[in-house]
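[scheduler] slot 2 assigned
[scheduler] job type: sequence-to-structure, two independent chains
[scheduler] chain ordering preserved from manifest
[runner] begin chain α
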Amino acid sequence: MRFLSLSALLFASTAPAAAVAQEIADTIYSGGPILTIEDALPTAEAVAVKDGRILAVGTNADMVAHSGDSTKVFDLDGRAMLPGFVDSHGHVVLGGLQAMSANLLAPPDGEVTDVASLQDSLRNWLEANADRVARVGVIIGFGYDNAQLAELRHPTRDELDAVSTEYPIIIVHQSGHLGVANSKALELVGYTAETENPPGGVIRRDANGDPDGVLEEYAFFGALVPMLSGLGEAGMLAFARAGTELWASYGYTTAQEGRSSPEIVAALHELDKAGELTIDVVAYPDVIEARDYIGDVHSKSYDGHVRVGGAKLTIDGSPQGFTALRDRPYFDPVGDYPAGYLGYSAITMEQTTNAIDWAYANGVQILTHSNGEGASDMLIAAIAAAQKKHGDREIRPVLIHGQFLREDQVDTMQALGVFPSLFPMHTFYWGDWHRDHTVGPVNADNISPTGWVRTRGMMFGSHHDAPVAFPDSMRILDATVTRRTRSGDILGPDQRVDVMTALKAMTIWPAWQHFEENDKGSIAPGKRADFVILSDDPTKIDPETLDTLKVMVTIKDDEVVYEATTGTKKGQLRTPSTRLGHTALHLLQAGIGSSDG
């Protein structure tokens, strides 16, 4: 970064002869376009900051009254400054797990295109990490996607056995809701031909009735838990450290741990007390597993950089993995599915109603994962019943994902005051798959229906759900504006929004989602000095090039926490190899955060 002299900043400005005494800024930011995300003053020349808070926003001349001998001037050098990004939904602690796993992603994020290349990636990783594997006793791979494999199917137990029969192997689907285990891993968890499917999960089987290695939802989570149980507290701290560094490298100054646990929250607090947590994290422990804990500790105030913001509920699974609960059959599911297959819910209607009722009764914000139309019907019914019983408690309930929403459901959610945190990155990663297999060409145009939401004047959040998708803020921005698929198709032209709307969905609207709109999400006096500096002004470039923008600097409370020109964190973490998704709950069950791990 460059700091200028005050005279360089104010060369064309003259202080008033009788200026009223003003607070002197610690830092003045100037020298490039500043997008405030404030409708009343959308752009500015300069911003003054003191004690981590914004003093003034305006012209260079306006800053004269706030400049003193000790004031530093941060030169934007022509680059664009925006408010720091607020994570509408992600899993920041689990986002650090890629350091311990093999990268099984398809291009452009990896090199896996078929089963053979997946096997090669696992073998190469095993060779490069032989000491780590011997110590931990397990091989983990992340990010494979059957939709991107030439075979258009999941790998099998036998194909993983070809990599190793000595070590248990478990690989995680990019959705985070499915995975594949080799014979050693299946033996370790005790899955046999006699094992019944767990509630909310499926053990796929071969012609003889034996597990073929592919595991869905709670069957998968039940296998993953033993694989990770040896990592212990040190492993959880490593995840938290790497995850928050990764989020900061993409301009996030507030991250979310969107299906958390008491152990994960404890690791975040420990990291914060050690001075290693440089951005804020809002955690939402699972309401089924940690209800009493949430009731005791949820708060709108931070303890350092950490707070428990409320609860998380998960109703169904993965739309691209055919485990989301629909209200109609999947269009052309790839695999051995019965006629009229709708997917399934992970929990019962009774559990859903009970969890939502508890949240309203106790004034606890609740975030609910609901992908299929059937799951969203369950959520809507539960919220309507809770509001009828308890009234509107101003808890700002949040829908997470809502990939297959019907338009009437959007109307109902607006009436109920549900905030939609949508996932437009799906249009890039799985848009072609949705068009051809999950919902078909007509309904695929309406996945992540940001257009429907804005037509009704609703706010929304755009999220990455990392590590399900990499927390690349510019990929989010690009997908929300262009909705281009991997093949270049535009999925739902009427659902596209303009660049400023997409930026609001990454800043001020998710700040509102988190009850933090008075502190974050825009550049205005009194708010925190949380900023991101981009390589160019996203409102001035060709929208088709938004994904080429780079995060150059991330600033939290007037302190640089990431800088691309001198830092190496982003370069170290840029190669994505994690798509764990919704497994924080199951790490809790594994006791990863415990001292005896």
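[runner] end chain α
[runner] begin chain β
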Amino acid sequence: MNAATETTDVVVIGSGFGGAIPAYRLAAGGAKVVVLERGPWLRTEDFTHDLRLGTYTRIVDLIQGDGITVVAGNCVGGSSVVYFAASLRAPGFVFDRRGSLGHRLWPASLRRATLDPWYERVEQTLPVAQQSWHDVPYPGGLFAAACRNAGRTCNPVPVAVDLRRCTNCNWMLSGCRFDAKRSMLLNYLPAALAHGAEIRPLHEVQLIGPAVTPGYRYRVTYTTVDGDDYRVPTGGGAIEAKIVVLAAGAMATPVLLQRSAAALGGVPAAVGRYFSSNGDRVSVAAMNEDRIRDVLGLEREPGVPYEALHIGKPIGSMSYDRLDPHAAEFTRFSLQQIYFPTITNLLTRSGDAGSSWFGVEKKELSARWRSWLTVLAMTEDDNEGTFGVPPPTGAFTRLASSIGLSPLRYAPTANTLRGWAAADTEARAVLERDGLSRVRPWSDVGGALCAHPLSSCRMGDDPATSALDDSNELRGHPGLFVTDGSAVPTSLCVNPSLTIAALAERAGPAIVRRAAEFGVPVRYSDAW
């Protein structure tokens, strides 16, 4: 590509949790920062309350791998714009996980206690609010009542939402028109801009290689893409920097590094291996309205016990009963009430055996959609995902503007299946008790469904099984850091956004130290 080369102190690739936080810390410290983001830049007034193609599909990618389908954000702010805002600290036992490799997977320097100060910083900055039962929507209340009926506990979920501004519209997948959801658009990114950072949307990075300008280390080559069809290139260029922070997401970061391996003189063998779906497992309970009334004594309005799947925030309550630190690995999980929009109705099976996609039973099931209760289990999976040969450009092959085909292969091991089976059993024990519902599995067509991709370029102490050291720096490549979900070593048993953000905050001092070592006039400040 014969394009002019520019220079800067720091290039940040991606603008979600993993990119926005380092961008702010470095810009606030005095570095010249350029953020390259593959997706568009939407403002509050651009978010819509519909599921039409060309609206929410502008900012959400549905990525199909072999054995798995992943949902990810594609916009300035990344997945923070489309996530459901559940903000939880990972349980302490997660940091001691050994998986099937037989040794501790997290760096020895990282435990829950050492990450707590960084969790607290993110919680205050977003900020995170603890819902009361008065804030929890009807589906969350129904799940809590079912848990109590089954002898389980249930709690309101802490969320990165301004509860005073939230209208409970349940359109979080499409962004937030009310500036209630605390995405990166409302905190770290504006702060980075205020300190001189530059954000460039519709810039898809293709390659990272050595710089040719004296005094710089890395050359980042990118393509600009059309805002209406991301498959159409509109130009391109290159920018050289002393520091690169790679935060393109767990589905893109390993692909970009694999494509760049030859130019970089090789990358660690763990790049593109050990992908985790966060153990995501979805079940759909078709609730019996009569039993809700007779067993639970609930009534949303006169004559209507429930019929409220679509009402309120997407996430309201969850049960932590199976997060026992003394239990065996691959048997621990959380259960969370969660909402999926009508477009996903076809993904649940109407029968217990096989995939009943059509027919009377399927039609009747979809017709009773308002009486569904959707439950997400987050389990301990086995980091079994592996990325194959990267496509010539991009993170995946785009079949349409929001649909792509990834080189990721995900075949659940016996350990992962064990965790899913335990979660399925618990979901049925809670929701089918006393005839409250019939629990259906999410569709197996296309494999697992994942909204929390992790670990594809993970940190750790063992160079053979981790791509990053405990400061998020890519082994063998000083000044190249990875700070997105791909750096998280294992599944977390809870929603990962807060942990990704806390780890990105924790990486800040190390990135600043390396930048100063390479001649960038920058200092670290924890001020906000």
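[runner] end chain β
[qc] chain β: The chain has a mean pLDDT of 94.
[scheduler] slot 2 released
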